[in-house]
């Protein structure tokens, strides 16, 4: 078992990993930029190394500085968290070359799943349901027209190096295809340095339902059921829940089996997430596979009583998984609390938290790194806390979320607490009748003068 793990991340996920390391008796090393010198993960870790100035490119993305920190502290593994270098094949490779265990996917696996068209081809070989469309990357516009005709409009053009919606265009009729093809490729080239495109039949008003999987070094995988992540704004998840209000027992079994088949086919090691699009007829289609721990992992932990970070560490140390699958015994909802102003188009609101009161009580979990007096640096993403409520039923979990949001006090900056509070009263959310289109029509009501 590892003696010392360096966490190559910051914020709440760094705290999350440090906590499990402590519980497992593993020493932890925090790395921090000069902007994070006062951050909580620095204080909670057993050791801390400053790896550079505020800009991520000079610190949390600076591979040489992170490897140097691991060498000088004699860490035998690195946990990358999510974001930053968590799905960077080159970093995974460099860790391997330095004989530091990367608690994540191999460089080959990251590359294979990071190339969306090749990931899809792999899933077709594995027999995982995929959206009909092109066979891999489309070589030229002439083929694009032909494939769109064969697929049938509307179609979705997608960037193979993409993800999160960049370089993606919905095309409803042939006359719009050329503009979409050119603008999507330009956007993808600019964002990823690669303009390979593939095409799929457009799935209208889909739900985003993902399955958590864990694979071990013996080639076995299990699933831990689903998370419904359909409430998104500009491809940023805002809230997630499990079980999905759209799920049925047979659909869960089918999607779970497909996700395990995918993971075992590619001999996936570690915690991963297979993302699916689900249409209104409950047909599901492979979308992408993420080879990292996800922000929303706590809701799964809550309903199946399982520590996913612990499992990542055990699998990376070669410990086999039990092999059984896990099904939700409770209902859990996560609200991402961001330092953004929902009354001003969710614009960032960095600054000093002058007063903070965190909710608590039965069934309330908060994963956060902030504290009263903490100054949120403008350099990183705006998430300051994840508020998670868990109860026997969805109705009770929503009720608990409302109560917890009403208790949540953050002064000195604006946050998305008021947005989540209104969401919990929205009829389409409360009824569970929402898709990825939900946020397009959502309007914040002006604050009542209290
Ligand atoms: C789609 C789709 C409809 N049809 N593919 C968005 C980013 C990337 N994860 C894939 N996405 C989509 N792919 C087909 N064939 C609709 C989306 C989509 C979406 C998917 C999940 C969650 C939120 C979304 C918001 C807009 C579009």
List the helices and strands and how they pair.
Blueprint: E1 4-7, H1 11-23, E2 27-33, H2 40-44, E3 47-52, H3 63-73, E4 77-79, H4 89-97, E5 101-102, H5 107-114, H6 116-126, H7 141-151, E6 155-159, E7 169-171, H8 177-192, E8 197-201, E9 207-215, E10 221-228, E11 232-233, E12 236-237, E13 239-242, H9 249-265, E14 270-278, E15 284-290, H10 297-304, H11 308-316, E16 331-338, E17 340-341, E18 347-348, E19 351-352, E20 355-357, E21 364-368, E22 375-376, E23 383-391, H12 394-407, E24 409-411, H13 417-423, H14 427-430
Parallel strand pairs: 1-2, 1-4, 2-3, 4-5
Antiparallel strand pairs: 6-7, 6-8, 9-10, 9-14, 11-12, 13-16, 14-15, 16-23, 17-18, 19-22, 20-24, 21-23
Helix pairs in contact: 4-5, 12-13
